[in-house]
Amino acid sequence: MINLSSPFIRRPVATTLMAIAIVFAGLIAFRQLPVASLPQVDFATITVAATLPGASPEVMASSIATPLERQFGHIAGVTQMTSSSTLGVTSVTLQFDLSRDVDGAARDVEAAINAARADLPANLPSNPTYRKINSSIAPIMVLSLTSDSADRGKLYDLASSIISQKIAQLQGVGQVQVVGSSLPAVRVDLNPDQLHSYGIGTQNVAQALSVQNSNRPKGQFSDELTTTEITANDQISTAKDFAPIVVGSNNGKVVRLRDVAHVYDSVQTLRSAGYVNGKPSVILLVFRLPNANVIDTVDRIKQELPSIRASVPAADHLQLMLDTTTTIRSSVNDVEVALGLSILLVIAVVFVFLRSPRATLIPGAAVAISLIGTFAVMYLLGFTLDNLSLMALTVSTGFVVDDAIVVMENITRLIERGVPTFRAALQGTQEVAFTVVAMSLSLIAVFVPILFMGGVPGRLFHEFAFTLATSVAISMVISLTVTPAMCAFLLKPAEEGQHNGLYRWSERGFDYVLGAYRTTLGWALRHPRTVVFSLVMTLVLNVLLAGVVKKGLFPQQDTGTIFGGFQGSQDASFQSMNRSLLSIQGVIRKDPAVENVAGFTGGQGGPGGGASNSGFLFITLKPRSDRDISATGVVDRLRPQLDAIAGASTFLQAAQDLGVGGRQSNAQYQYQLSADTVDALSKWGPAMYHAMQKMPQIKDVTTDQQNSGLQVLLDYDRMTAARFGITPKLIDNALYYEFGESQVSTIYTSLNQYYVVMEANPVLLSSPSTLQSTYVHASGASSVPLGAFSTTRISTSPLAVNHSSFFPSTTISFNLAPGVSLGQATTLITQMQRKLDMPADIVTQFAGTAQAFQSSLSSEPLLVLGALFAIYVVLGVLYESLIHPITILTTLPSASVGAMIALILFRSELDVISLIGIFLLIGIVKKNAILMIDFALQAERTEGKSTEESIFEACMLRFRPILMTTMAAALGALPLALGHGAGSELRRPLGIAIVGGLIFSQILTLYTTPVIYLYFDRMRQRFNRRHTRRPAGGPAAQS
């Protein structure tokens, strides 16, 4: 048989240079790898926005959302399409599948908007706009702009026209949303009585404002030498310029705008406010592009901030309120520390067993070369240094040392028998080369199903699986090349009396443990039925524990940030919401763990779809070392205080790094209902909402279905109106000009566009009774009050109209009660929905994170079966046997039992992180069986020993490497299991699953593997005896 390691042992210089080259390439790649919290799992997501000031949610939904959705429905790859229409604003969110390129999707969206333009209202101020955003729908940075002298309108103008534009141009930035006020505007507050006395209609005023303010091309003069442009003072921009405009005449006298209205410089909408730590502020929310690296994007913004601040007036203050990368950097640093501790612990294990610094150096070098070399492959594949890839390297420290231990331990055993060192390196490596390859390839096979797994979990753990598989593959190569070469030149035969007292003492201890194992193994081989019964019981325990252990999608992290929303009654005014925002911020600021709190209200986006009775909060906590409570604990501490605030319900949730889409909401999880008609949804949506409110297992239950907003219904007599020469269009115009903050003229500047906003005097906007005295100016006739041909009545209307995939929908959001897992909650909600016996036309489903959880839960059995099948195929090919792979696979049930018991004891959930831990256990535990079986087969073939003698000797001789590799794997994962600090919530389930599974399986598999091996061997012998007897009595024999 060819010894593949021989050239590397015989050419130590070449082998050394190869190892140095791998390390050098890895170190260079390490410095170039980008840093992130998690691998990029962003869906291509695009949001489309359209505004029509003053339009009701129903009008926005029917005239804008529906035409856009019809066109968007033709775009390929759309997996989710939702829309929310509120007062004057429609937002459509398109989420594409993971394979869709966001730039190509954006081109399709732009084409669809252009195709829908003919069906949109003619008075739409501007075309709908679209933005590429990340699917988490959470800002990566929040900035505040305050001033000692400037009003919020000027601050908003500065933020919108200059600051946001500079930030938006930076690479990685997808959108900069400015909230807390609105752009400067010239406001015209009409006096309807004065207009009526002069016989002037509101449409006359709107037309005058439009024609008296113009900015159109005028041409030029040109001769043989010069060109001269024509300009004029046709555009005006301030209230004092607009006030003298002639809007009509009365009795031969001109009527100017100032005669019938209060004209002043103000802001575009008065119904918007933002505060930071209780101080009036304009707030900038920075969102990243899909697949943009958050660390790099934030660093670019921070580098640009000094120059941006230099362009801001001295009295204005631009402050960084929230930086989501602070905890990301801390968590990545903590994982790097855990990686270092794992390496030290693994090397310590090796030293304890080998008790020689020279010998310990060999597997230590194998670990270093394997891990550092992995960085080079990560860089070539475009991976990042994130929590998961670093966790993969941390766990792999226990794996990559295994191969080197197996090779070196076998070489050491031959040296102790008197074989010369150089020859021992050649012979020892050749003896275990097959074992090393089998161990490594079967471990890599565990992750083959993960590499092909779809959806969010598949994208999330692709880097994890590939990083771990790469480190194992490099370790396999190093253990068969560098490790034997180092053994040949570093290991020395021990002379009699050379060992110190510590060595002799530890050797006696190991001999005692080995003797105990020899005794107990002999008992197990004499009582095989008892051992097999214990193995069967592990299968039963797997089924029972799978039903007991709590299940979730992803561990709850403490990112140091809390997102929140608050909601007033459905008829709440802007003034009451403004007071609620100040009261809520006052309570939050008093909490000792809070560093900053920013918030805004006024229907500008955020949870609740941006309805007029909603607001949004951003809370930054102090560093973890400066507070004694987690982010979730802060939320629980604030909840009763915020519940005591009258007039608003506040919802808080700890921000998470992983966002998997879904509609924006006031809680972390969503349940969605959709129907063909609004009436059906209006009946069953509240029924499901009230049913979920009564469930003690969930909390913060809220719905975006708000159908109890107040509206004034104007019921006019068309025949009477016609006699006055009044048409419905004239009525709509009169109402819009007085009550809709109508934008009647545009002021163009080099930086932005501003509007002239016209409506009735604010005093007249406080009572619906004003409608009766509102005048409609008929063509060629005097003004007629609405009360002359109409009546009014108060009714209810929706504050927001929501669609999902064209159809009316409602989303009920919720958080989990303490001690309740997502798996328990989804099961109970599904049972509750079935009890309500909804009709077939009501479609229900979980959305966002809850939907991703259900998808991952359904795929888990297939993943496990896929991993087992992959291992079986690899081992079957390597051993050319159908039975030996089954023997090896019988070690796996004990590992999952130990993992689930550990998860239950430490109150952790079986989520995608701990599931990966179980996958890793499959790879670790089967290594022990491979070490035993491979040695037993060699003993049978080469030495002619019986099966019983071979497996018993294999257990004895392989006990030390099995113990070493298991302890190395367990201690390598121990820093993850015991971790604290930033991001430890993410790492702990993985460590707990590995350590717990190893402790339980190590005890059991040392006995079950030899017993099962003997069982299958006896079955094989019986089969062979029957097969050889049959021909003796058959026709062929007789002939």
From TrEMBL:
It is a multi-pass membrane protein. GO terms for cellular component: plasma membrane. It holds the Pfam family ACR_tran. It is found in: Cell inner membrane. Keywords: Cell inner membrane, Cell membrane, Membrane, Transmembrane, Transmembrane helix, Transport. InterPro entries: AcrB_DN_DC_subdom, Acrflvin-R. The chain crosses the membrane at residues 12-30, 337-354, 361-382, 432-452, 464-491, 531-549, 862-879, 912-937, 957-978, 990-1016. One of its GO terms (molecular function) is xenobiotic transmembrane transporter activity. This is Multidrug efflux pump.
